[in-house]
Structures are given as structure tokens and as C-alpha cells.
Design brief:
It is a single chain. By secondary structure, the chain is mainly β. The protein is built from one helix and eleven strands. The radius of gyration is 16 Å and the shape is globular. Strand 6 and strand 7 form a beta hairpin. The longest helix has 15 residues, at about 1-15. The chain binds 2-acetamido-2-deoxy-beta-D-glucopyranose (2 copies). One 2-acetamido-2-deoxy-beta-D-glucopyranose (NAG) binds next to loops.
């Protein structure tokens, strides 16, 4: 009885386990978010996001990767900043330059580890906001410039299972 219940719970938890992240564009112009490795079961590597628009993506437990803004892209994915291989639907990390939102989902002991980073460069401000609540009482962490702002290259942790917002040009 007990092993069976435990097995069923394990299967259920495995199906349910995904972390949703809403990407918001506050830049006042179109940006092209990129995600590597790709989100949504490997199907979404990047997309166009118009001014004030948002899109929610899903990352599986054990995911480790980054989300970043590309600016000034054409239809082929040639961008002024943050360009990657694969065009708009990115299939590689950025060649260099953009601010990163780094995430490890369920990295250790049921915690996510995350932070905005300017270690590869800086293009626009990047904020990460875990949903506010008793589980993770942390406001937005915002990298506002190379080595400036809370969280440029600091790592934060929240319990796995909460929702995050990644804001480009968040103020
Ligand atoms: C993530 O979003 C999907 C689609 O809206 C929803 O079905 C799912 O329950 C969400 N997952 C979590 C952990 O909130
Ligand atoms: C994006 O690329 C992935 C593979 O990396 C593919 O599965 C998916 O269909 C592509 N999406 C679009 C819109 O082309």
C-alpha cells in the first residue's frame, strides 16, 4: 500500500513539476527574448516581444540556463545585441554582450537558484521577481548596469514551485 502510494505520488509530482516564468518587455520598443537551453520542452528558444507585451514560458525541474534580451533584430535574428545562432528561435547561447537572467530550477534540496548577471556584458536592465509570499520574501533583484544594481552576479534562492517574472528594462 505505502510503496504504491509513494510511487503514484512520484509520478504525479513528475508530471506536475515545471516552473513558469513570465517575461515582460518594458523597454519601450520591441525586444527578442532568447532562452538557452530552450523552454517549453525544448520548443521555444526565442521569440519577438513587442513593447509592454509578455509571454509565460515553462522550464522543467533540473533546468539550468539563461534568458536574455536581444535588441535591434531583423527577421533573420541578426541583432544589435544578444544575437545567437538559429535566428529568432535561438539555438545557442549569445555570442556575447547581453545581460542574463540565470536560472537553475530545483538545483539542490528543492531550491531554485537565480540571479541577473552582467558577467558576459550588459545591454538592458534585467530584473527577476519571484512571486511575493511567505515562501520567498524577496523583492525584485535588478541588474541596472555593469556591476551596478542589486544582483548583478549575486545568486538568490527560492523554494522550487513558485512563479517568477523576468522584466527587461524593469524600473
Ligand atoms: C504553468 O502554466 C501552465 C499553463 O498555463 C499551467 O497549466 C501550470 O499549472 C502552471 N504551472 C505551475 C507550477 O504554476
Ligand atoms: C524552435 O526550435 C525548436 C528546436 O530547437 C523546434 O522544436 C521548434 O519547433 C521551433 N519553433 C519554431 C516556431 O520554429
Amino acid at each position: 500500500m505505502l510503496p504504491c502510494a509513494a510511487l503514484m505520488f512520484g509520478i504525479f509530482a513528475g508530471i506536475a513539476a515545471a516552473t513558469n516564468i513570465t517575461i515582460v518587455n518594458s523597454c519601450g520598443e520591441t525586444v527578442w527574448p532568447a532562452i538557452f537551453p530552450a523552454a517549453n520542452g525544448g520548443e521555444l528558444g526565442g521569440f519577438e516581444l513587442t513593447e509592454n507585451d509578455y509571454l509565460t514560458i515553462s522550464l522543467p525541474d533540473g533546468y539550468s540556463g539563461r534568458i536574455w534580451p536581444r535588441t535591434g533584430c531583423d527577421a533573420f535574428g541578426n541583432c544589435e545585441t544578444g544575437a545567437c545562432q538559429g535566428g529568432i528561435n535561438c539555438t545557442s547561447p549569445a555570442a556575447g554582450g547581453p545581460t542574463l537572467a540565470q536560472f537553475t530550477i530545483d538545483g539542490y534540496a528543492n531550491f531554485d537558484y537565480f540571479g541577473p548577471s552582467a558577467v558576459d556584458g550588459f545591454n538592458v536592465p534585467v530584473a527577476i521577481t519571484p512571486d511575493y509570499g511567505a515562501e520567498c520574501n524577496l523583492g525584485p533583484v535588478i541588474c541596472t548596469g555593469q556591476d551596478e544594481g542589486e544582483g548583478c552576479d549575486e545568486t538568490f534562492a527560492c523554494p522550487t514551485g513558485i512563479h517568477y517574472t523576468v522584466g527587461f528594462c524593469h524600473s
